[in-house]
Design brief:
The protein is α+β, with helices and mostly antiparallel strands. Helices cover 28% and strands 22% of the residues. The chain folds into 2 domains: 60-181, Immunoglobulin-like (Sandwich), CATH 2.60.40; 187-464, Zn peptidases (Aminopeptidase), CATH 3.40.630.10.
């Protein structure tokens, strides 16, 4: 409190003593008016100071577990001042797969610390404490945060595994807070970036349908209209994220896109056509699903190697039909990338088609290119080469393909390779890259190495071939 304000208070008290028994607002008393004005000023300042120093504790209703970044079915109860217990629910059709802990504090966070106990009952796979989490005041700028502690117990009465974790924050500096898995990306943020990218003349946005909850299913295509090379001679790359909770893989693709649209990426942009699907399950981030769509289909066990089939799942069917349309066009895909996360830096494994090896040389060249752009492999691990012979698969899709132990071929790297004989890359890792910037940088490394390995343009003979399940030669008896 300032000296001037204290002086005013003293004066007011003195005047009050002198004016006892007199009407405060007498028409003949200018002193009374002066006292009232100064008293009102003092009360206003005092109230403001008191409010600034007092923070109402957080309440249950201050938390939101719904979209755009949520955890479907989560319940919350207050256990003490600024202390809460959250019980997580599970993915559709998978009672043992916990939804991610994701929420927003909508108000009243400023000045309050937070202690949260988080539990999930009946875990069988995909623990909610795997990898890292982040928090943010604005949903854009994120800071990684660990759980203070975790433990796993078995309920003796049911035999179920119970996973518990403790989350602790010191007093927040702002009223709103976001919390999510890895470095989160909401569907709305993805759409906002697509709207910005499509202003570039090389970008075409394809809306191939809608999700089960009505969100756009988007494929972004980058093909430079001013390229001196005909489209049929350009290398074509297809990148897609299947699992909606693996946000770092989405930011990895953001890095690829932004490099291709930059001045530095002009040569790569002119020699290639690149397709990007940032979210095959755009309903997932709002509900905290790690691997599934609304139907409970594991999105990376959903590829139908004998051809798109409606029962493989709503979004998988639409995206596979779209990919098959690209394969049937005059610019079929050269490489298919399935983008995921697990611990460590980005971790690619590539199976290069015989046609690409004949045109470009051994894939070990790509190993050296990755080292060139990331010498210490801080962002991308050394490239692993899958040299196993292609095994053609034509059996129809079955429900088993959507399960975690589904046969190879139901995945979005092995499936297109088995169906079309193209080069396929499974790009895992990245869960130890704790910032948006690191994940974006890993994407820049990958796209630069890839487009330099795929140097020049397609040989005329390779461009003339029609790559499809019907025309690619197969071994006898396959």
């Amino acid at each position: 409190m300032t000296r001037a304000l204290m002086s005013d208070m003293t004066g007011i008290s003195r005047e009050r003593r002198c004016l006892r028994g007199k009407p405060l607002m007498s028409a003949h008393s200018s002193l009374s008016r002066k006292e009232m004005e100064r008293t009102a000023s003092f009360i206003l300042v005092a109230v403001c100071l008191a409010c600034a120093g007092y923070c109402a504790p957080l309440q249950v209703e201050d938390f939101d577990f719904g979209p755009p970044l949520g955890s479907e079915g989560a319940t919350i109860e207050k256990t003490g001042e600024n202390q809460f217990l959250v019980t997580l629910s599970h993915a559709p059709e998978h009672p043992g797969w916990a939804n991610h802990l994701q929420f927003r504090i909508l108000r009243n966070a400023k000045g309050n610390p937070l202690k949260m106990t988080v539990r999930f009952v009946g875990e069988t796979q995909y623990s909610f404490v795997s990898n890292f989490h982040s928090w943010s005041y604005d949903g854009v700028n994120w800071q990684p945060t660990p759980f203070a502690s975790t433990k796993t117990e078995t309920d003796p009465s049911t035999g179920q595994k119970v996973r518990t974790a403790q989350l602790e924050f010191s007093a927040f500096e702002k009223d709103t807070v976001w919390f999510g898995f890895q470095v989160p990306m909401t569907y709305e943020q993805m759409v906002e970036m697509v709207e910005r990218w499509k202003r570039h003349p090389a970008v075409t946005v394809h809306e191939i349908g809608r999700s089960l909850e009505g969100r756009k299913l988007i494929r972004l295509e980058i093909a430079d209209p001013d390229s001196p090379y005909p489209k049929e001679r350009r290398w074509v790359h297809y990148f897609a994220n299947q699992h909606p909770g693996e946000y770092n893989s989405m930011w990895r693709m953001v890095g690829m896109i932004e490099f291709l649209l930059s001045d530095e990426g002009k040569d790569a942009r002119q020699r290639s056509i690149c397709h990007f699907v940032l979210m095959q399950s755009p309903d997932g981030p709002g509900h905290g699903w790690h691997r599934t769509n609304r139907q409970g289909i594991d999105m990376n066990r959903s590829y139908a190697v004998a051809g798109a089939f409606p029962e493989q799942g709503h979004e998988p069917y639409l995206f596979q039909k779209d990919l098959e349309g690209i394969m049937a066009s005059s610019c079929p895909v050269t490489t298919v990338w399935s983008m995921h996360t697990w611990p460590g830096a980005a971790d690619p494994t590539i199976a290069v088609s015989p046609a690409d090896i004949a045109a470009l040389g051994p894939p070990e060249k790509c190993v050296e290119l990755l080292k060139k752009f990331d010498p210490d492999h801080k962002l991308v691990k050394p490239l692993k080469i899958d040299s196993r012979a292609l095994r053609w698969r034509t059996r129809p899709w079955t429900p088993a393909d959507s399960k975690p132990d589904g046969k190879s071929g139901g995945t979005w790297d092995g499936g297109p390779r088995a169906q079309f004989g193209v080069t396929a890359c499974l790009c895992e890792g990245g869960a130890d890259l704790l910032t948006k910037e690191e994940n974006i940088a890993s994407g820049r490394v990958l796209i630069q190495a890839l487009t330099q390995y795929y140097e020049g343009i397609k040989p005329a003979a390779q461009a003339a071939e029609k790559t499809s399940a019907e025309t690619v030669p197969r071994p006898a008896g396959s």
